[in-house]
Specification:
A: about 350 residues, alpha+beta, Rossmann fold, OB fold (Dihydrolipoamide Acetyltransferase, E2P), 3 domains, 6-stranded mixed beta sheet, 20 strands, about 25% helix, B: about 290 residues, MetI-like fold, two-stranded antiparallel ribbon, 2 strands, MetI-like (chain B), transmembrane helix (chain B)
Chain lengths: ~350, ~290
């Protein structure tokens, strides 16, 4: 029995199904991200775990206890809201102490635990400030301290980093992971940012229009996306639609008269398939030397890497190569594209069509 | 290039019409009233062109006037208190409603303001009269009839009825600005619905409650039609007293004196209250 489990949980708002048959088992101490575009039901799922939204169907249990219909104030879970939802009329210390006060923790212990929580998020010097006197990142850390000080069995984070600017967001990602490692709290984070989900989670749950479509470790999710949506939503990719051809020695997909070799599972000859290859798995070489020839349509310098769009007989392909400190092929010049056949992945076409 | 003098004049020109209005319709009459209150009065010859403090002395030393002032303050304070007690929960419920219910109930709340004050007050006098609906209902239930009309109770009831929107709307506006997730945050931290309201939601509506109670108190303390019709001839409030001095006694200077004293008292109370509550709220809410 998993620590936190959702069994066939659904939520309907009138005729609209926001979340449909979500089955999820989360182990103690895990950091799990719910990833998906806006409107995919990830926040509703989180709110059902928090008790702010009641499921229409299904069962949620925590540590063997059924909490499906329990009031949020009895669950004792820590929640960090997207807007942080700090109490504006209370100081940082009072904000953090609120949960302890509700638990009738004696004053002396309360003060001590608030001090520890603020130290954990490195805000000890700000205990007497009001939320409006803090920056976005500091408010966010207050929200985390407030949620963690009650020592919750599960910490729920709703788009915790989306209101921060890019640089701060990156810092807070690692900060969040550091704090989670240190206290070891089981954590569920909702995000629409794939980079955020991949970098700090143990497992990522991808959601699409109310359904879970893949649950995997970040690395496997990136390398083996189960459908075309995931492969383009998680990272960048080139999708090629073709027809499967089985030969004697080599089997692969035929696209526009070209046979692209791929090691792939058993697929019947003539089946339509979609192939996916990540931009960084393609190498640029001299024209004629690779598996495919093309012409550089445009290139973008991203600092650590170059991003190319290359016109090929199969359509426009995106290629990214690391910056080696030399000028790469110019726009308009002919190039060859090469890759290892193992990196060309077949995506089941029925899933791609969905 | 625009010449400097004209850019300098722009703010004055823009503020001018409003300022003129204010001077002409508020400051000037007020100044005339203040001057009038110092004129001597003789019952046989009317207003004299000599100046005296005797009206002020008379009002401050006469128990009759003091009793009316005390009653005015008592009724205004009680009305404010009841309006807050009813209006704040009402505003909270309203802020949690969804359309179309919210629009419908907002209209219901503002409803009393759409009916003429005289008509509305006569309505109350019919309900509260000795053979009114309230007494009939009491008798049906086997209670003895009670005297409500021409008592302070009747005045307070009718005042609360008309003042409620002035409490509900500012509080509602303050609650609208609240992040609904703040309340949810309190629940997840272990607070019950009631505790979340008391500790988290209400403190943030303080400024709305402050402006609401100032409006209600000010309007109640100077209410005229309601006490005139529901208080009868004996139960006077400040505004009806001033009316009587002007139109029954024809002693305009004394009427002016009472009006000025009421105004000063009202201002003092409201400023003190404002200072007390707002200073605290501003410090925390910013």
């Amino acid at each position: 029995m998993a620590f936190l489990s959702l069994e066939r949980v659904s939520k309907e708002f009138g005729t609209f199904t926001a979340v449909c048959d979500v089955d999820l088992a989360i182990e103690k101490g895990e950091f799990v991200s719910l990833l998906g575009p806006s409107g995919c039901g990830k926040t509703t799922t989180l709110q059902m775990i928090a008790g702010l939204v009641e499921p229409t169907k299904g069962r949620i249990s925590l540590d063997g206890r059924d909490i499906t219909h329990e009031k949020p104030n009895r669950r004792g879970l820590g929640v960090v809201f997207q807007s942080y939802a700090l109490f504006p009329h209370m100081t940082v210390a009072q904000n953090v102490a609120f949960g302890l006060e509700m638990r009738r923790i004696p004053q002396a212990e309360r003060t001590e635990r608030v001090r520890e929580a603020l130290a954990l998020v490195q805000l000890s010097a700000f205990a007497d400030r009001y939320p409006r006197q803090l920056s976005g990142g500091q408010r966010q850390r207050v929200a985390i301290a407030r949620a963690l000080v009650i020592a919750p069995p599960v910490l729920l984070l709703d788009e915790p980093l989306s209101n921060l600017d890019a640089k701060l967001r990156e810092e807070m990602q690692f900060e969040l992971r550091r704090i989670q490692r240190k206290v070891g709290t089981t954590t569920i984070m909702v995000t629409h940012d794939q980079a955020e989900a991949l970098s700090i989670s143990d497992r990522v749950v991808v959601m699409e229009s109310g359904r879970m479509t893949q649950v995997d470790a970040p690395y496997r999710l990136y390398e083996q996306p189960s459908n075309a949506f995931i492969s383009s939503f998680v990272g960048k990719t080139n999708l090629l639609a073709g027809t499967w051809r089985r030969g004697g020695a080599s089997s692969g997909a035929e696209i526009g008269g070209v046979l692209l070799e791929t090691p792939a599972p058993e697929i019947a000859d003539g089946t339509p398939v979609t192939l996916s290859i990540r931009p960084e798995k393609i190498l640029l070489c001299d024209a004629g030397a690779g598996r495919l020839d093309g012409r550089v349509a445009s290139r973008f310098f991203l600092g650590s890497q170059w991003l190319f769009t290359v016109e090929t007989p199969l359509g426009i392909m995106t290629v990214s190569i690391p910056n080696h400190g030399e000028e790469p092929p110019a726009e308009g010049s002919p190039v060859g594209l090469d890759w290892s056949p193992a990196n060309l992945r077949v995506i089941a076409d029925n899933a791609a069509a969905a | 290039m625009t010449p400097r003098p004209s850019t300098f004049a722009v703010p004055w020109l823009l503020a001018g019409p409003g300022a003129l209005f204010f001077v002409g319709l508020v400051l000037l009459p007020l100044a005339l009233t203040v001057i009038l209150s110092f004129h001597a009065y003789d019952y046989s010859t009317g207003i004299q062109n000599t100046f005296t403090l005797s009206h002020y002395v008379a009002v401050v030393t006469d128990g009759y006037y003091l009793e009316i002032f005390a009653r005015t303050l008592r009724i205004a304070a009680l009305t404010t208190l009841i309006c807050a007690a009813i209006g704040v929960p009402e505003a909270y419920i309203l802020s949690r409603m969804r359309d179309p219910w919210r629009s419908i109930f907002l209209l219901v709340i503002i409803g009393p303001l759409l009916v003429s004050v005289v008509v509305r007050t006569f309505g109350w006098s019919m309900l509260l009269g000795s053979q009114g609906l309230v007494n009939q209902a009491l008798q049906l239930l086997g209670f003895p009839p009670v005297r409500i009309l021409y008592t302070e109770t009747a005045i307070v009831v009718a005042l609360v009825h008309v003042m409620l929107p002035f409490m509900v709307i500012p509080v509602w506006t303050a609650l609208q600005k609240l992040d609904p997730m703040v309340e949810a945050a309190a629940w997840t931290l272990g607070a019950s619905h009631f505790t979340a309201l008391r500790r988290v939601v209400m403190p943030q509506a303080t400024l709305g409650m402050l402006s609401g109670s100032l409006i209600v108190f000010g309007l109640s303390a100077s209410a005229f039609a309601v006490p005139a019709l529901l208080g009868g001839r004996r139960l006077k409030m400040a505004a009806t007293l001033v009316y009587d001095e002007y139109l029954q006694e024809l002693n305009w200077p004394l009427g002016a004196t009472i009006a000025i004293i009421v105004l000063a008292a009202n201002l003092c109370i409201m400023l003190a209250y404002n200072r007390m509550v707002e200073a605290r709220a501003r410090r925390t809410l910013g």
